[in-house]
């Protein structure tokens, strides 16, 4: 979901225009935000207090808006930090959205959107990395000449909504190899990690086709991924895929399953995935939601022409 414009800089520049939210969920009015995790603060500057002071300067006038600084992280660009904040608006039911921006090394400028590689082949590094390490369940061609890699969270509503888009891409580009890479957003989706681990185990036991049956069933019953029904929902999806629930549960709890899933998450982080769903087209990473299908189709066709 896109945020149109949340603030301006110098009275003209839309700081957050086009910033993308990876989550939007209804939340309790008392404290709508997930707890802060210190591991997401690995950059020396700016501090959370610096960010908070900046937000107060631009948003302090709005009594309905609340926020929390959730991350200040290093990036591949020396001295450039990525800041993630969660924002809620009381007048809009306290729904939570995420906003990201980048702060320059001198601490004087904020840059909305993301940091991109520059040059004639800006996606080449990602393409090589995905060729080598995107080893999730796959459909379509055995060739990687056109490699579409989807990064998704099985408890993410927008990932469920992206299903028809991925189906249409498979139809329109039968020459594509389509790979599914788990990227569970554990801060906001408590069943996402286990659902992903179990899916990997289904694929290991019954093959890639069974995995896609499994994730379809999880998405079809996503609203039941609750404390009361979550375990049953995942068990039923394993059964739908033709796998043994007990064996899959044992596998999903193993150190090997954790290592595999953590490697998938690490790969996503390496290439810059910071929300779900996202798709990489021969290394060209972009949000999968909020983009008209015809535009996405044009991007894929253009990337095919450019090659890897």
Automatic annotation (TrEMBL):
It holds the Pfam family Thioredoxin_4. InterPro entries: Thioredoxin-like_fold, Thioredoxin-like_sf, Thioredoxin_domain. Residues 90-243 form the Thioredoxin domain. Gene3D superfamilies: Glutaredoxin. Keywords: Disulfide bond, Isomerase, Oxidoreductase, Redox-active center, Signal. It comes from the Bacteria. GO terms for molecular function: isomerase activity; oxidoreductase activity. Residues 1-23 form the signal peptide. Belongs to the thioredoxin family. DsbA subfamily. PANTHER family: DISULFIDE BOND FORMATION PROTEIN D (PTHR13887:SF14), GLUTATHIONE S-TRANSFERASE KAPPA (PTHR13887). This is Protein-disulfide isomerase. It comes from Terriglobus roseus (strain DSM 18391 / NRRL B-41598 / KBS 63).
